[in-house]
């Protein structure tokens, strides 16, 4: 019997990688739904190629264009996620949530009830809405797999072990393009310099997050949420080769680490073939890298944003939404060349520490509306600053 699957954000890099995996094994999969925001042309091509009957296009203009193009085709076109029960009357076997940004939280939350297993690559859903996601997973008895390479590695290493057996978790950071650049040279950094990630091919926004190490701040929050581990038991290590993705030190004296090539197809592949006896062709072990892992503590003078974690509340709060929104807003200002790299870092730190935002550390998110309202509120506040 074919495995029924859904891909939220199928035109993203994660979505495309998953489709490339499925393409080689079409006989075992049936895609029930693909979604996109503005990239309707690629979405239509994907639907044709994989014979998908249902698509969601959330951008209003793209939705109208899609309806015109697909007028005489046997494809059901929807504009939002309110029709999920109609599209998926029964639970599918697997969902990949690969929509980028905080906009991915709503569809991720809504589709949990329609699937037996969900693989989440949407960082913002786990950072901002984990208490709500966790409750929905439990209520619907839906299994969850994290897809970020670091969190998939931790997930694999723990293998259902009790968290009380863990002494310390280390996640690794490549350090981005500036790992070896002296701090004194940061004032000369240009946009094109920040977009040259040495190991990973990613979108512009996440590439900048990697250059500032803000992505690791969010990944520590993710790890705390997913594995219910205190912040004090999670550390970041720089590792320029991106070969080791996670290290776990157990209380019994054992330490385990997981390695794989810096290629997101590996955790994606292992999520869709979870617990299945399926193998793919891998490259031989890179012993040159293993003999020179070059693991180091983060230089906080060069990457001061990691200090934000020192004052984070132990429990999930609305402040995570504040931080995500402030970072997104300022990264796009940098991408538009309205602020320089040093100002980007300085403003993220300064604005997120404003008293009017710090108060949200004491408030737990109660529902999705509260999170999205706060995002809009923070945007309005930032607009008044005239950055």
Per the CATH scheme, the topology name of the largest domain is Rossmann fold
Strand content: 15-25%
Low-confidence stretches: none
CATH class of the largest domain: Alpha Beta
Cα-to-Cα separation, first versus last residue: 55 Å
Number of helices: 16
- Largest sheet, if any? 7 strands, parallel
Number of strands: 12
| SSE string, helices as H and strands as E | EHEHEHEHEHEHEHEHHHEEEHHEHHHH
What's the alpha carbon Rg, rounded to whole Å?
A: 21 Å
Helix content: 40-55%
State the main characteristics.
seven-stranded parallel beta sheet; 16 helices; 3 domains; five-stranded mixed beta sheet; alpha/beta; Rossmann fold; 387 residues; 41% helix
Fold and architecture overview:
This protein is 41% helix and 16% strand. Helix 6 (123-140) links the parallel strand 6 (117-120) and strand 7. It contains 16 helices and 12 strands. Helix 6 (123-140) packs antiparallel against helix 13 (319-335) and helix 13 (319-335) crosses helix 16 (368-384). It has 3 domains: 3-146, Rossmann fold, CATH 3.40.50; 161-260 and 271-306, no CATH class; 317-387, no CATH class.
Summary, kept brief:
It contains 16 helices and 12 strands.
Layout of secondary structure:
Blueprint: E1 3-8, H1 13-23, E2 29-36, H2 40-49, E3 54-57, H3 60-69, E4 76-78, H4 84-87, E5 94-97, H5 105-111, E6 117-120, H6 123-140, E7 143-146, H7 149-158, E8 166-173, H8 191-194, H9 204-212, H10 214-227, E9 234-238, E10 244-250, E11 255-259, H11 265-272, H12 287-290, E12 296-297, H13 319-335, H14 341-352, H15 355-358, H16 368-384
Parallel strand pairs: 1-2, 1-5, 2-3, 3-4, 5-6, 6-7, 8-9
Antiparallel strand pairs: 8-10, 9-12, 10-11
Helix pairs in contact: 1-11, 5-6, 6-10, 6-13, 7-10, 9-13, 13-14, 13-16
């Amino acid at each position: 019997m074919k495995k029924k699957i859904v891909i939220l954000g199928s035109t993203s890099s994660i979505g495309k990688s998953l489709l490339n995996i499925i393409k080689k094994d079409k006989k075992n999969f049936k895609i029930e739904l693909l979604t996109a925001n503005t990239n309707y042309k690629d979405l239509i091509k994907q639907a044709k190629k994989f014979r998908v009957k249902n698509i969601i296009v959330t951008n209003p203009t793209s939705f109208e264009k899609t309806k015109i193009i697909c007028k005489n085709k046997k494809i059901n076109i929807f504009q939002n996620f309110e029709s999920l029960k109609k599209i998926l009357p029964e639970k599918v076997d697997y969902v990949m949530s690969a929509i980028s940004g905080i906009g991915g939280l709503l569809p991720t939350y809504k589709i949990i009830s329609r699937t037996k297993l969900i693989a989440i690559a949407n960082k913002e859903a786990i950072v901002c809405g984990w208490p709500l996601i966790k409750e929905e997973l439990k209520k619907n008895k839906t299994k969850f797999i994290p897809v970020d390479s670091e969190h998939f590695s931790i997930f694999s290493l723990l293998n259902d072990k009790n968290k009380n057996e863990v002494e310390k978790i280390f996640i690794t950071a490549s350090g981005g393009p500036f790992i070896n650049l002296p701090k004194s040279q940061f004032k000369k950094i240009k946009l094109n310099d920040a977009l040259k990630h040495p190991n990973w091919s990613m979108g512009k926004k996440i590439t900048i997050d990697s250059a500032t190490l803000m992505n690791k701040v969010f990944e520590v929050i993710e790890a705390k949420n997913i594995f219910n581990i205190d912040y004090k038991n999670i550390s970041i290590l720089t590792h320029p080769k991106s070969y080791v993705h996670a290290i776990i030190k157990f209380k019994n004296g054992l330490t385990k680490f997981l390695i794989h090539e810096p290629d997101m197809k590996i955790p994606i592949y292992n999520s869709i073939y979870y617990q299945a006896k399926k193998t793919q062709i891998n490259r031989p072990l890179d012993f040159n890298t293993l003999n020179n892992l070059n693991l180091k503590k983060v230089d906080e003078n060069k990457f001061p944003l990691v200090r934000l974690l020192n004052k984070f509340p132990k429990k999930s709060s609305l402040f995570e939404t504040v931080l995500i929104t402030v970072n997104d807003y300022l990264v796009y200002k940098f991408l538009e060349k309205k602020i320089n790299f040093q100002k980007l870092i300085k403003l993220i730190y300064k604005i997120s520490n404003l008293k009017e935002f710090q108060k949200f550390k004491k408030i737990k998110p109660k529902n999705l509306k509260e999170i999205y309202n706060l995002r809009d509120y923070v945007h309005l506040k930032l607009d008044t600053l005239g950055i």
